[in-house]
Amino acid sequence: MTSILKAKVALMMAIPLVLIIALQFYFQAKMELQAKLSTGRDIHSLLKTTEQAVIAWSKRVKTDVFLASDDASVRQYTLELIKADKNEEQQQLLTAQNKLKDIFSNAIKHREYIGFSIISP
Q1: Cα(15)–Cα(7) distance, integer angstroms
Q2: Out of the domains of life, which is the source (predicted)?
């Protein structure tokens, strides 16, 4: 009789313990899922914000390039740079570079550009 009583007492103590452990695993899994969903939403939001910032930046840069290429003096100094022989016409090369630096100095200063490059065939 005492052994049956001990088994019942042990079973009565084990049931709440098992229930508590099961609830712990359930709530832990639920919290992990909520954390994953929240992190996913945050990353998606950050991605969309970054995408919009890159699109705005690229539009601004394209506008700057088109405005600069529309300026006759920029085209003139660019042609001088392209035509100048780097070894023979050093002074003409430096003059054209300095004039372009002066023209772009405001954009470099206010748009936080590092400088400019001229790419030609």
Answers
A1: 12
A2: Bacteria
Q: What is the pLDDT of residue 11?
A: 81
Terminal Cα-to-Cα distance of the chain (whole angstroms): 102
Q: Which among 96, 98, 101, 65 has a CA at the least distance from the CA of 81?
A: 96
Evaluate whether 115 touches 108 at the Cβ level (below 8 Å): yes
User: Quick one: DSSP state of residue 85?
Assistant: -
Q: With 80 as the cut, is the pLDDT of residue 86 above it?
A: no
Looking at residue 84, what DSSP letter applies? Answer: S
> Alpha-carbon torsion 49, 54, 59, 60, what sign?
positive
Q: Is 113 left (phi over 0), alpha (psi -120 to 50) or beta?
A: beta
Comparing 27-36, 54-63, 64-73, 82-91, which segment has the lowest mean pLDDT? 82-91
